[in-house]
Structure formats: structure tokens, C-alpha cells
């Protein structure tokens, strides 16, 4: 046992000291924060400026109303001046001529765009309402510009225009737009999650946390699994392994490596967790007000299961990565063998949406028992709703039994593979090693 | 007492016999040479002794016990493929490898300082292994093998790739170890080293033992009818003499094996006057000659 400890100590100290670990530990959270904060900052930084939009209004009714709408404070810039100035154009010389002229103006940047409102936009065509009630054909008001990717602007203009058109139509029918607006006011479904502790409103946070935590387990297993594999390959290719094995058992070396690197992973997570707690306590003040971002909180039981499933998943895949490392001579060679293992990690990630949507379906329950999936899928189910404890316990037991089986199997492969150089063994040979060693 | 007893061990890799029914014993406190051409089965034998490869049959006793994990602490092993952790610092590497041999931290540190001093590597203690030259890494590897004061030291091709200075250093330390009562086994295909330091040898060829025993006795068996001739001139004619069984001609130096019926005294007069003789010595055959004869006359090349 103490020899395993020595191996763990070596792996741990050697790895914690590497630049990769230090940079990864520091930059990990910085990167995560940047990913969240930068878009918030960017979106709150105003790049908007006043612009003039030409309007060709063939109905002769909309321009005035639209101009009034866009004068409203919702459409104004921060300094209070108007965001959109409208300029009316009359097709006195014919529509085609006017279009050509407006085109010129847009290209010369005198106008940022022009809107072309056809004559029949206010008509309620008998044709359309009869054809498809659920999806009435949209009137084609044209928005012509040299760039049409500012969806924020398009949405604003579209909204204002729609309001004007709808109000006009209602008035034509003798209806009071304000009353109608009240009639068609929408109701929303408020998701309320029931747990044994009571009820809580859910504004999508559960979904996000489940998703992120499951992704963290996935990433961690993938990254640290590769670290194990690389370590085994390095020991093999530097030929130090025979020296080490003249002092201890292959099993001790393999387990020491897996445990040591796992300890590094836990260290990294602990640092990040502390960092996260610090950030949630002090960090909220850095986020610009009105950014519509709340620090999600992670329930204690979810955190406990996160640690459990991370550790178990890490062991299960760690043994596989160690065995693969022992079978190959170079990292390049390893890539082919790693594919199936990576697939076991990717499949549950692809199933995540399904599990989040139907966490209690029999397929979800079944999948979350499969040991190669359960570190991600059972954990995911726990975050979405708490499955019966029997199910959680069963999946953990299955996982632990599988891990023991895998350790037993991979130790045999490792024991022989680690001292084999040259040609990669065939699957039949590996099976023979397992049977006869 | 025997430090190592090997009895009838065999190992097959697929259809290939790597070692076949091999037996030998090594008395404690001696230096033992495991000889054989490349691919004869020396490394496989050593790996079986180290319990890295399990023999198909036969038994191995190390220091009168079966080789197990505990025994590994009493044995020092230098593998044929040298290797160290390149990213580790010299001092840390030695500490780790000494500790997994069962040495306590404080004892290990003392030994590390002693050996680094002895091999003139003290200045490199806090340097990374990969910064060391090849020769220095070889020294380091040797320290790793002996740092835990093993009773049995197993060296697989210890002299390959060494310069003459390190060769002498290693040889001196091996003899020192012998004086302290340690047992040393080493494999090689370089005969001159074996002749200098080995008490006993075992010659393996094609997985099987062809010769085993005390070195001086073996040489005596091969008789007193070998002549070492140091000469100048054209000596090709000697080949045609009826007394000759075999000649190894090096141009200015010749190892002549005579037929059992002839005497070196009869040969000398026939040479006088035809070539200029600097030295005419009657002696036991060199191990190299025995080796070549036993392995089938094929030239053995140094690596």
C-alpha cells in the first residue's frame, strides 16, 4: 500500500508543478468568466447611433403613425435623441425611378436603409385568412439596406411597424386597439418544481446548472483520462517502466497513477469551487446592473452527487485510458483506440436533452443504469428531479462493480502491454492475455 | 549458499522458443556472466528472474526464496532498455526510486548524496534528468540499481554504450560490491569484460545452455594447445600446415588452435626465418575463441 502512496505522491507533485496545471487552474475560471461576462459587457456597451431611414409609404397612412411610434422613449438613444429618423419619399416620378434613387442614397450612406410599404398592406385579403388561419401570410414590407444583419434593429422596426399596421386595421373595422390589446393579452406558464422540501419557482436555472455540471463531468473525465494515458505512454516510451516494475507491481503503478492524477483533478476542482464561492459572494457586484444575470445556486445534494459521480466516472474511464496507454507506443497510435472510449462519453452528452426533458421515462431510467453512461446520465436525472433513492443506489452499485471488474481486466492488459514494444497487439491477443495471465 | 538457482526454465513466445530448459546456479558473493549472441535469450532469462515475465515451466529461487514483491527490495536491476523519468529532478528521481525499493527517506537521502558524490554528479542534483548528457544518465541509471544496497545485482548489458572511463568505473564498483559479499549477474556479448571480472559463466545460444561453469576450469578444458603469435610479415602459409586446426588472423596478431595430436613446440621451428616473430605464447584459448567455436563459428559483432 505504501508503494502505491509513493507513486501517488510522485504523480501528484510532478503534475501540480507543471506549467500546464498552473495555467489551466488559473485560466480555467478566467476563461469561464470571460465567456459569461464579455458578451454581457459588449451588449451593454452602446454602439448605436442616430440613423436616417427612408420610407416609401404607398398607403399614405402609415408614415405619420410610424414616425410617432419611433419618437417614443423606447426607441430613443441614451442621450435622449431619436435613434431612427424617418424621411418620407414620394413616388412622383414612378416607383422604379424612386427605388433607383433610394438605392443610390443607401449606397452613398445618406440613408442607412429604406422601407417600402406596399399599397395593400392594410387590406385584410380574403385570400389569406381563408387559406391558413394558423399561419397567415405575412405582408411583404421591404427593408432595403446595405447590411441586413442587425437583427436588433430589424426587430425594433418590425415591431413598431406591426403595431401601426395592426392598430390601423383594427380601427378600420371599428375596434378599439387598446381594448383588443387587453383581450389578447397572453398568459404564461410558470414552471414550479415540487421537491420533498417544498416548491420553488424555476426560471430555467435548473436546466442550465444540470447542463453545465454534466458537461464539467464529461470534460474532466475526458481531459484527465487523456492525462493518465499520456503518462502511461511516457513511462513506456522513456523505458523507465521496467525500472519501476523491478520495485513494485504493475497494478500498484497503474492504480497509483490513476489515484495521483485523480487527486490533481480534485485539487483543481477544489480551487475552482473556492473561487466560485468567492465569485458568487463578491463577484455579483462586477456584473453590470440590468444585465439580467443571476448567479445560479447549486443545491447541496447536487454537489455531493456531482463529487460522487465525478470520482466514479473518473475511475471507470481512467482504467480504460491506462489500459490503452499500455497497449500503444505513441500518442498518435493511441488516438484510434481512444475513439470507442470517447464515444461512451459522447453518447450520454447527446442524450442529455432527452434526459432533461423526460427524466423519468423508462428509457431514461434504463440508460442511467448503464455504467458507462451513469456518471453523466444518472447525475443529470438527479439534478432535474430526484429519482427514488433505490435507483441512485443501484446505479452507484453497478458502477462500482463495473469499476472493480474493469480494474481487474485492465490490470491484466496493463501488466503485459506496458512491457510490449513494437507492433500493437490484436484484440484476440489481448483476450488471450486476460485469460491466461 | 546460492544467490540464484534456476532450474529447467522455459519460455515460449508463440512458436518461438526464447528460453529452453535452462538451468544454472550462482554461488553467493561471485560475479556471474550470462553470455550469448544477440537474441539468445539472455534478456528473457533475466526478466523471468525479475518476475516480469512468468516462465512457462521450471523454477527460480532468488536468495533461497521464490521471487516475489518483497524480494524485489533485495535485488538491484539494470534493464537492457535504460530509462528514467526525463522531467524529474535528479535528486527527486533517485529519492522516488530508492523509496519504492523500501528505503526510508532519511537513509535514501544519505545514499543519494554518497553516490552522486562518487559519480561526480553532485552539481546536477537539482537539474532535470533530461538536461544530463547520455553518459551522466548512464551513471544515474547505475546508481538507481545499487542505491538500496541489494544483495543480488542483476545487470542486463551493463557496458553497452559506455565510454572507457565509465566502463572502468562500473567495473571497479562491481568488484567492490563483490568484496562486500554481494552477488552480481550480468549479461553481455563482450568477452574481454567477462574474462576480466567473471568467476563463473553460462553461455546460451538459441535459447539453450551450451556451456556453464567456472571460467578458469572451462579454459583449462579447452587445453594448452592454443598459440598466440605476434608477428610481422606474410604468414598466410601457416594455414597449410597439418598441425593447424583453426586460425584467427588479425594481420599482426594470430590466435592459432592446434590439433590435439600436435605440440606447440613442433610449430615454432617451422616459422623461424619465414616471418619476424615478436612473441610466441602458448596459453589457454581466449573466451572469445571458445565463444565463437561454441556458437558455431559465426562472427560475433559488438554493438
Automatic annotation (TrEMBL), chain A:
Transmembrane segments: 21-42, 208-229, 258-282, 302-325, 337-356, 362-380, 392-411
Keyword Transmembrane: yes
Protein name stated in the entry: ABC-2 type transporter transmembrane domain-containing protein
Pfam family name, one: ABC2_membrane_3
Subcellular localization(s) per the UniProt record: Cell membrane
Chief localisation class: membrane
GO MF entries: ABC-type transporter activity
Membrane topology listed for this record: Multi-pass membrane protein
Amino acid at each position: 500500500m505504501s508503494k502505491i502512496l509513493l507513486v501517488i505522491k510522485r504523480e501528484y507533485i510532478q503534475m501540480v508543478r507543471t506549467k500546464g496545471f498552473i495555467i489551466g487552474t488559473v485560466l480555467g475560471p478566467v476563461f469561464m468568466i470571460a465567456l459569461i461576462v464579455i458578451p454581457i459587457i459588449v451588449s451593454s456597451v452602446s454602439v448605436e447611433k442616430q440613423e436616417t431611414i427612408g420610407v416609401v409609404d404607398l398607403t399614405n397612412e402609415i408614415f405619420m403613425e410610424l414616425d410617432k411610434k419611433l419618437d417614443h422613449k423606447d426607441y430613443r438613444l441614451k442621450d435622449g435623441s431619436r435613434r431612427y429618423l424617418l424621411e418620407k419619399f414620394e413616388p412622383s416620378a414612378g416607383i422604379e425611378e424612386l427605388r433607383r434613387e433610394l438605392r443610390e442614397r443607401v449606397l452613398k450612406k445618406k440613408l442607412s436603409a429604406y422601407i417600402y410599404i406596399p399599397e395593400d398592406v392594410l387590406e385584410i385579403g380574403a385570400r389569406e385568412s381563408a387559406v391558413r388561419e394558423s399561419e397567415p401570410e405575412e405582408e411583404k414590407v421591404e427593408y432595403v439596406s446595405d447590411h441586413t444583419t442587425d437583427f436588433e434593429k430589424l426587430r425594433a422596426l418590425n415591431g413598431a411597424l406591426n403595431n401601426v399596421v395592426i392598430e390601423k386595421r383594427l380601427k378600420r373595422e371599428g375596434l378599439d386597439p387598446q381594448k383588443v390589446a387587453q383581450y389578447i393579452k397572453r398568459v404564461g406558464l410558470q414552471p414550479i418544481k415540487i421537491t420533498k422540501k417544498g416548491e420553488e419557482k424555476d426560471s430555467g436555472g435548473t436546466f442550465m446548472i444540470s447542463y453545465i455540471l454534466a458537461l464539467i463531468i464529461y470534460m474532466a473525465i475526458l481531459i484527465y483520462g487523456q492525462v493518465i494515458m499520456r503518462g502511461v505512454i511516457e513511462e513506456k516510451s522513456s523505458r523507465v517502466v521496467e525500472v519501476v516494475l523491478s520495485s513494485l507491481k504493475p497494478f500498484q503503478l497503474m492504480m497509483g497513477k490513476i489515484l495521483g492524477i485523480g487527486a490533481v483533478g480534485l485539487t483543481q476542482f477544489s480551487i475552482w469551487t473556492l473561487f466560485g464561492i468567492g465569485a458568487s459572494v463578491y463577484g455579483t457586484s462586477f456584473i453590470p446592473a440590468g444585465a439580467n444575470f443571476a448567479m445560479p445556486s447549486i443545491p447541496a445534494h447536487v454537489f455531493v452527487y456531482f463529487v460522487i459521480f465525478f470520482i466514479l466516472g473518473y475511475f471507470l474511464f481512467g482504467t480504460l485510458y491506462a489500459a490503452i496507454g499500455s497497449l500503444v507506443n505513441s500518442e498518435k497510435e493511441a488516438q484510434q483506440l481512444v475513439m470507442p472510449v470517447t464515444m461512451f462519453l459522447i453518447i450520454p452528452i447527446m442524450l442529455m436533452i432527452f434526459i432533461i426533458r423526460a427524466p423519468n421515462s423508462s428509457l431514461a431510467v434504463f440508460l442511467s443504469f448503464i455504467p458507462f453512461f451513469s456518471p453523466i446520465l444518472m447525475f443529470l436525472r438527479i439534478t432535474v428531479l430526484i429519482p427514488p433513492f433505490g435507483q441512485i443506489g443501484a446505479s452507484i452499485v453497478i458502477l462500482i462493480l463495473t469499476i472493480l471488474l474493469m480494474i481487474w481486466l485492465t490490470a491484466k492488459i496493463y501488466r503485459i502491454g506496458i512491457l510490449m514494444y513494437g507492433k500493437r497487439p490484436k484484440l484476440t491477443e489481448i483476450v488471450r492475455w486476460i485469460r491466461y495471465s | 549458499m546460492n544467490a540464484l538457482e534456476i532450474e529447467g526454465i522455459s519460455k515460449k513466445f508463440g512458436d518461438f522458443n526464447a528460453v529452453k530448459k535452462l538451468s544454472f546456479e550462482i554461488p553467493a558473493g561471485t560475479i556471474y556472466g550470462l553470455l550469448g549472441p544477440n537474441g539468445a535469450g539472455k534478456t528473457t532469462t533475466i526478466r523471468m528472474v525479475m518476475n516480469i515475465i512468468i516462465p512457462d515451466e521450471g523454477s527460480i529461487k532468488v536468495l533461497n526464496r521464490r521471487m516475489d514483491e518483497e524480494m524485489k527490495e533485495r535485488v538491484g536491476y539494470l534493464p537492457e532498455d535504460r530509462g528514467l523519468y526525463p522531467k524529474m529532478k535528479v535528486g527527486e528521481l533517485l529519492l522516488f526510486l530508492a523509496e519504492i525499493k523500501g528505503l526510508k527517506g532519511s537513509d535514501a537521502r544519505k545514499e543519494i548524496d554518497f553516490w552522486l558524490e562518487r559519480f561526480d554528479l553532485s552539481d546536477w542534483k537539482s537539474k532535470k534528468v533530461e538536461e544530463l548528457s547520455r553518459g551522466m544518465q548512464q551513471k544515474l541509471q547505475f546508481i538507481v540499481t545499487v542505491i538500496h544496497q541489494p544483495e543480488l545485482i542483476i545487470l542486463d548489458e551493463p557496458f553497452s554504450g559506455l565510454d572507457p572511463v565509465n566502463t572502468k568505473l562500473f567495473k571497479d564498483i562491481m568488484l567492490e560490491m563483490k568484496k562486500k559479499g554481494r552477488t552480481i549477474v550480468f549479461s553481455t556479448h563482450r568477452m574481454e569484460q567477462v574474462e576480466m571480472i567473471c568467476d563463473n559463466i553460462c553461455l546460451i545460444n538459441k535459447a539453450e545452455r551450451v556451456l556453464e561453469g567456472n571460467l578458469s576450469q572451462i579454459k583449462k578444458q579447452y587445453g594448452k594447445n592454443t598459440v598466440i603469435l605476434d608477428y610481422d610479415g606474410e604468414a598466410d602459409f601457416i594455414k597449410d600446415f597439418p598441425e593447424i586446426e583453426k586460425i584467427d588472423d588479425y594481420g599482426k596478431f594470430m590466435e592459432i588452435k592446434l590439433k590435439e595430436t600436435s605440440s606447440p613446440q613442433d610449430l615454432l621451428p617451422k616459422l623461424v626465418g619465414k616471418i619476424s616473430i615478436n612473441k610466441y605464447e602458448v596459453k589457454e584459448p581466449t573466451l572469445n575463441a571458445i565463444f565463437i567455436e561454441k556458437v558455431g563459428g559465426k562472427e560475433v559483432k559488438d554493438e
